[in-house]
Amino acid sequence: MLREAVLRDEKDFSACSIFGMMSPSGKRVNGEPIIRAMANMRERSNGLGGGFAAYGIYPQCPDLYCFHVMFDDHVARKQTEEHLRRDFEVCDSGPIPTRPCDGVENPPLLWRYFLLPRSTDDCDIGEEDRVVRVVMEINVKVDGAFVFSSGKDMGVFKGVGFPEDIGRFFRLEEYEAYLWTGHGRFPTNTQGWWGGAHPFNILDWSVVHNGEISSYGINRRFLEMYGYSCTLHTDTEVVAYAVDLLLRRQGLGVEEMAAVFAPPLWSEIDRMEEGKRKLHAALRQVYGSLLLNGPFSVIISNRRQMIGLTDRIRLRPLVVGSGRDFDYISSEEAPMRLLDDTVSETWIPWGGEAVVFELKEEAVPELTVPIEVFRSEVPLAARGTGRAEG
Amino acid sequence: MISYLWPRFLVERDLRRCIRCGVCTRQCAFEVHHLYEEEDWVYSDESACVGCLRCVTLCPTKALVVRPNPTQPPPNANWTTEYLQNIYKQAETGGVLLTGMGCDKGYPVYWDRMVLDASQVSNPSIDPLREPMELRTYLGAKPDSLEVERVEGRPVLHTKLAPQLELAVPIMFSAISYGAISYNACESLARAAAELGTFYNTGEGGLHRNLYRYGKNTICQVASGRFGVHADYLEVAAALEIKIGQGAKPGIGGHLPGEKVTGEISRTRMIPRGTDALSPAPHHDIYSIEDLAQLVYALKEATDWEKPVSVKIAAVHNSAAIASGIVRAGADIVVLDGIRGGTGAAPTMIRDNVGIPVELALAAVDDRLRREGIRNRASLVVAGGIRCSADVVKAIALGADAVYIGTAALVALGCHVCQRCYTGKCNWGIATQDPRLTRRLNPDVGARRLVNLVRAWSHEIMEMLGGMGINAIESLRGNRLKLRGVGLNQEELEILGIRHAGR
Amino acid sequence: MSVGKGISVIRRGKLPRFVEDSTGYEVVLRAEGLHWRELNRLVKREAARGAARIKLEGVCGHRYIGTGVREPVELVVRGVPGNDLGAFMNGPRVVVYGNAQDGVGNTMNGGEIIIHGRAGDILAMGMRGGRILVREGVGYRAAIHMKEYGNCRPVLVIGGGVQDFLGEYMAGGLVVVLRLHGRKGEFERARHVGTGMHGGLILVRGEVGEQQLGREAACVPADEGDLEILGPLVEEYTRHFGGDPDQIMSGVFTRIYPRSHRPFGGLYAY
After folding, report:
1. pTM
2. How far, in Å, CA of B417 to CA of A226, rounded?
3. Which domain holds residue C245?
4. Residue A7 near chain B (CB below 8 Å)
5. Is there a contact between A250 and B471 if contact means CB atoms under 8 Å apart?
6. Contact A334 C191 (CB under 8 A)
7. Is residue C268 part of a domain?
8. pLDDT of chain B along its 503 residues, tens only?
9. Domain coordinates in residue numbering, chain A
10. Is B124 part of the contact surface with chain C (CB cutoff 8 Å)?
């Protein structure tokens, strides 16, 4: 059922609102501000999808992978759990806490799993690659199951509804994060479904996206060559996988990634000095199939960075601003001013120019409790959420 | 022996318009028209007419009409004019039926069974006349990833890319040899390629010394006959192409009859004047795939690894597996030439019955290379029946990096596809070495016509890309979501990797 | 005095109108908590009742302010107005104390918009009349398809820089770019200026690189005539936003103009 809803259409695209806020010093806030920001841009979504990514929400176990999974039924859940147990030690699991909420109907079963990868003799494939493989396997093979969050010390919360309703449904006021991204969806050719909402996530990477990527067909075929299964038929999913491929697996920098997704025109490349010209020409020659063509603005985030990027001729909006404690990237300027009257400067980034906000070195969240100790303690699910309750 | 053939065409002359000027007489190398000045009469021997329309086009008073002969054998769905005439010809001569240009049978043209997408609302169509629209294409092997080093915080490219051909438009001129066509036609192609920032292909007939100056825009072919292949020829080329097969005549060789081996052709092909130039069916140094690799690397070694090496095959049943082997044998470019691809001369039965439509081969090859994870390692070029810019767009969406146009280019030069190239009497001065005929094609005009054609197609391609909301050709390449099938069955859709229109 | 949701104060008075030789009253509307439809309904109602000035406080993303108002009323906006500020506007004057978002003056036919800050993308798209003055820089595609017809000749003055595609498809009207404020390189990096331009005029303070222009646009140093056009506009700009007009005028100016009124005449085969 989960996937049936979407397979009818080859691709799902949407016009949306996106918002991101990050504290470079690692200061955490709960989900209320970003819910307000998304509500301010309600015009840009139509109630068929909303979601959030939050980083730093599971400080008790920052080194465990936390899978957020949606299920059609408990059969799918059991199948998935069997799958998980093959590759992971399941340190804890339970339903994701929610509350009934007007405007949020027929949620699937929503569970989360705190996972420790089993050590393996298989040296050919690294731990993260294995996690990606498990996510792909579950999403492709287990009918009625969909892993929508698979990072560490972070989580994605999303579903069908306006973002502010989804935020209340998932009790986001109970989580504290130093980096939040949010998305309100306005799907144009598919009925909304829970898995199709943004953010899209793989490992620590999550993506919220506004626009339609006209190059989806080839982006997807290119990624399939590298073992990514694009199960959701959405253009945003390919962005998440492309980020994973370029940054994590192939070790390119954010700047190069931006030059792949939204490359300078050949006329600009031809004018560059030699070293730079060679680099940009090679990036286009080799990764031309990953050019994200068509209007888009995205916020890409991981545990250390929040990156804003628009297409090379900037057909979708993106505004950037900085306040005292938080930096912001948004579809519109109004919501960042609504949240924060310390926002002094705002600007519009150039098309294809990545705006990168980074966590300060000393602000890296550390593992405070050894996993062994933690595992034997009170079950995470029983603690409810990541809220610091002492 | 009396010939049982009857004229294929009727030549009708409006005597009120005809001024007995003799243009038709002089223009027709097939000697259809005869002017009897004293009797103030022009007689047309229709049995010699090939329907090339040269006389019609040049008649100053538009006095001529050439049309298919309405005289037909008794109606019969099986025994049509074509089959009867073929049998009469063979009964009279004992010879193999010969023809020119590409297959004219009504096999499905899949380009015509696919339609393109356009944006509405959710992504804007782009206005290509004003907004940037990039067609630049690079042909050559690409690595699976790039290594970029940080030097003093700045990214520096560490990977060295294999040699690439830079095309300003994803359209090149197919391999057509000097010999099959005239020097002037070759020069027209060379100059047009240079002006357009693309490439033309020498075919297997060597490269005339005068055309060495267009080397930067020349792909030099190495075929089984190795005509004119020597160190300078390899050196001057921008890329080299090993011709394994040709869409018009897969699996067979060919020969340029000795009559056509004139002084210049003899010098260019480096064979004695007046001898038959024989192209063997296979390369006799390639009997298997590892031998192909040996030749690929021989050419790379001969040119200091500075030029991409292309391998051209005819589209046949197992093209996908063959292409995979070619890529693994080190080719930088794979060319697929489909059943509708042209030729200067081919046995009719071969031309019309051997090979497969290039659309299907392309889809299968692109899929196979992707499944094997080696699609980056080589570029794909398709040839054989590209008739218009929409065909180009569809080919690229199916998975091609670029296309070759041969017939279309010759049509731009005046060819009317009469299919008599093998006679050497081309009235348009293209497929002939007769100096009286070749001077009809002025390379200045020829180059201009080709440039105009490709420019016009480029504009149209940009319009189509813009409509799809794409502003760089690489986002179309292999983007089969931009295609939908019309009137195709499930199997065809599956091979092409597209959905039916309406879905 | 509170007289209804969103309206906190009404001062009846004899306030001179910004254009006509008549007077009206001033009203203050509080936008917080109001949907844009409610806010704009109040604006239209007050304008119809004869307000000379409507102050909108606490605006935050409210769309279409000034749209559908035909009366000669002055709207004073505090906060960040939402997209399509003044879309299809024909009459009012809008003054924004803050930054504006995307789509300001979309297909505007008359009236005036003064922005004491920045504006976003597609400013003055298809604008046919009236004037827009922006204190600072603007985003992508400013003055796209701006046009003129009959007596209508739109004017857009940008105090800062611009991003790509300024004056794209431009068919008429006047754009002035003063480059007085903004981030480093905010004009120099702009590309595709005047691409597809086939009418109108763009005057830029400072020099313009050839590589910045689209195929259909050309540039030359501004001449006396251009400076005559510029003078009063620069004065108007400094009147609103401060600065020394003489100092601004003392720099070099460049005129960007269309190479042809029919750039695509030769495109088709027959």
Report:
1. 0.89
2. 45
3. 99-263
4. no
5. no
6. no
7. no
8. 899 999 999 999 999 999 999 999 999 999 999 999 999 999 999 999 999 999 999 999 999 999 999 999 999 999 999 999 999 999 999 999 999 999 999 999 999 999 999 988 767 788 887 788 999 999 999 999 999 999 998 999 999 999 999 999 999 999 999 999 999 999 999 999 999 999 999 999 999 999 999 999 999 999 998 999 999 999 999 999 999 999 999 988 887 888 888 899 999 999 999 888 888 888 888 888 989 999 999 999 999 999 999 999 999 999 999 999 999 999 999 999 999 999 999 999 999 999 999 999 999 999 999 999 999 999 999 999 999 999 999 999 999 999 999 999 999 999 999 999 999 999 999 999 999 999 999 999 999 999 999 999 999 999 999 999 999 999 999 999 999 999 999 999 999 999 999 98
9. 4-375
10. no
Inter-chain residue contact A286 with B376, CB threshold 8 Å: yes
| Cβ-Cβ contacts under 8 Å for B213 (sequence gap 6 or more) | none
Q: What region does B123 belong to: left with phi over 0, alpha with psi -120 to 50, or beta?
A: beta
Those residues of chain C whose CB sits closer than 8 Å to some CB in chain B are 165, 168-169, 192, 195-196, 214, 216, 263-264, 267, 269
Helices (H) and strands (E) in chain C, counts: 3, 12
SS3 content of chain B, % helix, strand, coil (to 5): 35, 20, 45
The residues of A annotated as belonging to the active site are 16
Q: For residue B485, what are the CA distances in angstroms to B116, B252, B380, B481?
A: 9, 33, 22, 11
Burial class of residue A334 (count of CB atoms within 10 Å of its CB; 0-12, 13-18, 19+): buried
- Report CB contact under 8 Å: A268, C191: yes
B148 interfacial to chain A (CB closer than 8 Å): yes
Selected for mutation to probe chain A from C83, C144, C195 (highest A CB count within 10 Å) is C83
Instruction: Reduce the secondary structure of A136-200 to three states and give it as a string.
Output: HHHHHHCCCEEEEECCECEEEEEECCCHHHHHHHCCHHHCEECEEEEEECCECCCCCCHHHCCCE
From the options 1.25.40.10, 3.40.720.10, 3.30.70.20, 2.60.40.10, give the CATH code of B9-95. 3.30.70.20
- As for the ipTM of the complex, it is 0.89
**Tokens (6 digits) for B192:** 């047009």
Task: Compare all CA atoms of chain B with the CA of A256 and give the residue at the minimum distance.
Answer: B155
Interface mutation vs chain C, best among A268, A270, A332, A336, most C CBs within 10 Å: A332
Q: What is the largest CA-CA distance in chain B?
A: 92
Q: Let me know if residue C13 belongs to a domain.
A: yes
**Angstrom distance (rounded) from CA C114 to CA C18:** 13
What CATH number matches the domain at A4-375, 2.170.270.10, 3.30.565.10, 3.90.180.10, 3.60.20.10? 3.60.20.10
Residue in A159, A171, A154, A198 with CA at minimum distance from that of residue A305: A154
CATH homologous superfamily for the domain B137-141+166-500: Aldolase class I (3.20.20.70)
C141 and C244 together in one domain = yes
How close does chain C come to A316, measured CA to CA in Å? 9
For residue B157, which residues of chain A lie inside 8 Å, CB to CB? 275, 278-279, 282
In a shared domain, residues C167 and C209: yes
Q: One-letter amino acid identity for C128?
A: R
Q: Would you list the DSSP string of A349-384?
A: PPTTPPEEEE--GGG-----S-HHHHHHSS-TGGG-
CB contact under 8 A, C140 and A351: yes
Q: Which residues numbered 312-331 in A keep a CB inside 8 Å of some CB on C?
A: 313-314, 317, 319
